[in-house]
Design goal:
The complex is a heterodimer of chains A (107) and B (119). Chain A is mainly beta and 107 residues long. Chain A is 0% helix and 50% strand. The chains are: A mainly beta (107), B mainly beta (119). Chains A and B meet through strand 5 and strand 10 of A and loops of B.
Chain lengths: 107, 119
C-alpha cells in the first residue's frame, strides 16, 4: 500500500499569509494526487485534482505542484474561511490512500 | 445536480453487521463510481472500497476483505455498504463519495453516517 505523509500536522497562520503544506508518497504516483479541505462535521471537499487542477468554483488562491513522490499545496493569501483540515489523496494504486491531515488555524 | 443522501446513524453491538445506503438524489449514478470512505474519530479518511454500478464490479481494500460487501441497485440509484463482524475500531463516520472511475478524485460526497459500535 502507498503511504502518504503530510507535513506539518498542524499550523497556525495569519490572514493574508502564504501557507504551504507538503505531501510525500512512499512510491512514485506520477501526477495522481488530489487535495481536499474538511471542516468540522462536514465531508471532505476536493479543491485540487491531478496535482494542480482547480476544481470548479475553488478560489484561485489555492494551488498545487509536484510529481512523482513530492507534492506541495499552497494558499497564496490565507482567508478566515480557509480554516479546516487539509488532506492529500493518491489514486495511482489501489487501495486509494489519504494523508493523515494538516490542521490549519488562524492566528 | 446530483446529491448523495445516506441512511441514518446506527448503533451496533460488537460482532454484528451494519448496512449503510447511499442514494443519488436529483439524478442517477450514470457511469460514475461510488466509493465508501471511513473516518474514525480524529483520523483521516480511509478508503474501504468502491463500485461502478453499471458494471457491478466492486474493489475492496485488503484490510476489509472478507468483512465488507459493496453493492449497487441501478434501478433505485442506491449503493450499499455492509460491514460484518463489527468491533469498537469500526466506530466512525462512513461516507459514500462519487468519482469518474474507481481511481480518481471524489467530487461529490454524502453527508456521512455515524456508526457506533458499543457493547
Amino acid at each position: 500500500d502507498i503511504q502518504m505523509t503530510q507535513s506539518p500536522s498542524s499550523l497556525s497562520a495569519s490572514v493574508g499569509d502564504r501557507v504551504t503544506i507538503t505531501c510525500q508518497a512512499s512510491q512514485d504516483i506520477s501526477k495522481h494526487l488530489n487535495w481536499y479541505q474538511q471542516t468540522p462535521g462536514k465531508a471532505p471537499k476536493v479543491l485540487i485534482y491531478d496535482v494542480s487542477n482547480l476544481e470548479t468554483g475553488v478560489p484561485s488562491r489555492f494551488s498545487g505542484s509536484g510529481s512523482g513522490t513530492d507534492f506541495t499545496f499552497t494558499i497564496s493569501s490565507l482567508q478566515p474561511e480557509d480554516i479546516g483540515t487539509y488532506y492529500c489523496q493518491q489514486y495511482d494504486h489501489l487501495p486509494i490512500s489519504f494523508g493523515q491531515g494538516t490542521r490549519l488555524e488562524i492566528k | 445536480q446530483v446529491q448523495l443522501v445516506q441512511s441514518g446513524a446506527e448503533v451496533k453491538k460488537p460482532g454484528s453487521s451494519v448496512k449503510v445506503s447511499c442514494r443519488a438524489s436529483g439524478g442517477t449514478f450514470g457511469s460514475y463510481a461510488i466509493a465508501w470512505v471511513r473516518q474514525a474519530p480524529g483520523q483521516g479518511p480511509d478508503w474501504m472500497g468502491g463500485i461502478i454500478p453499471i458494471f457491478n464490479i466492486a474493489h475492496y481494500a485488503q484490510r476489509f476483505q472478507g468483512r465488507i460487501t459493496i453493492t449497487a441497485d441501478e434501478s433505485t440509484s442506491t449503493a450499499y455498504m455492509e460491514l460484518r463482524r463489527l468491533t469498537s475500531e469500526d466506530t466512525g463516520v462512513y461516507y459514500c463519495a462519487r468519482s469518474f472511475d474507481i481511481q480518481r478524485w471524489f467530487d461529490t460526497w454524502g453527508q456521512g453516517t455515524l456508526v457506533t459500535v458499543s457493547a
